[in-house]
Amino acid sequence: MKNILFLILIIVVAIIIGSATKSANTKMILFRGKIIDFVIAAYIVLLLIATAVTFGIMIKQESKSERVSAEEISKAVRAGENFADYVETGMLPDADGVFVNQEWHFPYESNRLIITSKTSDGNQNWVVVERKKELDDNNQVDIVQYATKSIIDDYDYSHHLKPPKITVNEHGIIIEPSEQTELKLAKFTKEFTISQFTEKQFANQRIFGGVNNVRGQDVLYLYVPQSVEVVEGNGIYLQFID
Asked: Is 137 helix (H, G, I), strand (E, B) or coil?
């Protein structure tokens, strides 16, 4: 945006100088004066529009991700490190730093539930199964995706990560893995003409050397009725919680 405004300024100055030097008589000067007035007015309008657009883009970009505190980052790191232990001990739903990313609820009448995945990369989907208590047994399968926060350079981008697509048929549950999310990270510094006098030099240092990166963990958690037999299908790794 700065480069565009600078180019416009050069063009305007060139037009003004050219108009002034090529004036041959009073009428021509007056005519060119009107042109100059028009060009200056148009330039001011462009400046105002560019300023409004720039602020709009900055506000829009800032709203895409939420900046988090050092405490939240530490919490996310601890939750990720202890994620498997939380699952093993049945503490995941109440663990600090773990949140519900998505929920699904399906009525299910059959007594056999086959869980399969459409994964194409050869990896297995980790699915945790917990049987409901008798009082909660309502012939309904509840699925919850628990996750920890994903953070990069103090920005929480967890809400950009899409959950998997889940469908239910008469045979069981089909899990379609979520699409990959592309993230673009950029950093801006002042121009060299300014930074050489005002900023410390960063020779031989990586611009992203100090960026923190917390990769979130997630798992699908199934709550099934007591009478339903859960079967491990293609592309699935089942873990049962007592």
From this structure: coil
